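Students often ask why we bother encoding 3D structure as a string. The short answer is that it lets us treat folding as translation between two languages. Here is a chain of 343 residues written in the first language.
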Amino acid sequence: MEIFTANQVNQVYVANAYKATNANVKLTKADTLGTIAVGKNTVEGAIYFQHVGAGGLTRSDLIDVKKILYGKATPASAMARNLKVATITLKSNLLNSNKLTTDEDYVLRIKFDQVIGLSPEHQYWKYGVVKGVKDMTATNFYKTLALSIAKNMSREAVQLVSVFLKTSNSEVEVTSATTESSLTGTYTGVIIKEVEQDWILGIKQQRPVSFTVEPVSIKFNDSDFVWGDVAYTNGAVIGNGKKMADYEYFYMGERGDQYRMVNWPDYVPTKYLVDPTKTYDTIALHFAYVGANHSVQMSEKDVTILVPSDATVGSGDSAASLTNTIIGAINTAAGATVIAPLA
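And here it is in the second language, the structure alphabet:
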């Protein structure tokens, strides 16, 4: 990672509060950690930000309003994602009175892409297998399949998916420790769910588990036949808190923390302001610095403000989101709408 200090290309601030300042009211390091203020330099025709960080009071570059190339606000919801869920059921024409009509080996293939550092060209396969016999009930088929998948996945050092049996109104988790005798319900399918992966700030990024489920063809009525249907749905929502924590971590490094962890454990740790359990809206300003003489070329930079999506200013019916309050202050200082507020 390149280190920029005097000419930092993306200045990132975590805003937990806003303070309106003027000639008589100033932002000080005694204000709440994460407080941000928007200032205006009328002589330079520029705006700037002041911010109370863990290390004290800092100020952004002066941003020439005429050199603002664009501004954008993004809600936390646009940066969230859902865990993937796949539901597997038998084709209806394989069943008669909810029992199998043909003897076959039913194989379910689970294909993982780019798992644990593998390249896009590499795929990783796991399987579930049922020795199907005529008159085997659908419930017993699904139990056998779920137990097979769970046992196969139990050998993984990192849990990639979890396995469930579907009933008419609930789900029953199946693990490698589950016994067949403990599964006494009536089951209508097998559910495979993506597992949220581990995360370590600045070290281990939380990646999605990319997988597809493929029932392998069997012989049925003297032809190849795909024995199962697979339906994909959205599971639990994963917010952007961990992603924003990593974002702050790396751009704090760009700010000048280039000796992070050197001579560990004898070092001064950096304090970060993002709470990874929360979600964050972002406010981005992309602008250019243009100097004089030999420095007249445009040097493009960014200021990014991370704002807790649930934070408000004011109370009761008059409460406004902290994100839109900061956007309003930026537009007022700039004398124009450079960033559209969030809906």
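Translate back mentally: Residues 1-6 have pLDDT under 50 and may be disordered. Keep this in mind for the problem set.
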